[in-house]
Every structure is written in structure tokens, then in C-alpha cells.
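Entry type: protein chain
Record version: 2
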Amino acid sequence: MIKLTHLLLFLLLNLISFTASATNTTTAYDLLTSYGLPSGLLPRGVKDFAFDASTGSFEVRLDRACNAALVSESAVHYDPDVSGTIAYGRIGGLSGISAKDLFLWFPVRGIRVDVPSSGLIYFDVGVVRKQFPVSLFETPPECEPPSVEVRIRTNWGLKLFRDVM
């Protein structure tokens, strides 16, 4: 009976230790990786972040809005404030990130990866789902200030950005 009690106590302490290590992250990048997401979903230069482990909600503050190039005609735009709700392998209720495809910018509402990994990451942009190789997001990208652009919003939340310089 004593050995069973010791075993249960040992398992309980390990569970508490695992839960504490998953929620006591030191950076926003650590938070992403502890939830099975690549750290490169956020650009370099995160100024501050807050995380509520009980709800999964998080807020990230960047120094400024910026754009990060992905592949060919694709890019990601980050507002100075990014927020959402994180769960293992996914982020929902996302605001502050847009994805560019050709010349259209779509607000990203959610991001998910397959568990176990298929090597793909999916951006939910409302009208379509955009997929990228997860390897594009392994490290935080350099983020450049956005060029001077004209933004046009439609009823579907699409943004058309046109360089005017």
C-alpha cells in the first residue's frame, strides 16, 4: 500500500512539474514551441508578451508594424499588436496578422499544424485556407517596415495593398 501511495505521489508531482514547465515560458517564442507551433510564426523583435494559461489567450507587442517575405508572391504582415488564443497545435481568434497571396492581403483568423506533423502549416483566412511548409517558420523572420501602401477593405475583410512609391 505504501509503494502505491509513493507511486501516485511521484506521478502527481511529475504532472504538476510538466504543467508548470509548459506554462512558465520566458519568451513568446518559447510559448509557441511549448504548444507544438514553430517559433517563426512571430518575427524577431517581440517587445513584450502576456499569456493567460487558464484561457490560452495571449498578446504580443512588436516595436512597429512590419512585413516578412515568405516565398515568391507570399508574405506576412504583422500589426504592432498581435493576439489570439493558443491551444496545442493551433491558434484561434487571431488578430494582427495578415497573409499576402499575389497582390491580396487576407486577415489570418487562425493557424494550425497537424499533430503528428505533416510538414505543413495552415492559415485560416476566412474565405480560403492557405498552406505553407512548416519549415518556413522554423526561425523568427527578419521583419521590414511596410512600404507606403493603399489599403482597400471589402465586405469579406480582404485587403488590397498597392505600392505607391
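Comment: The radius of gyration is 19 Å.
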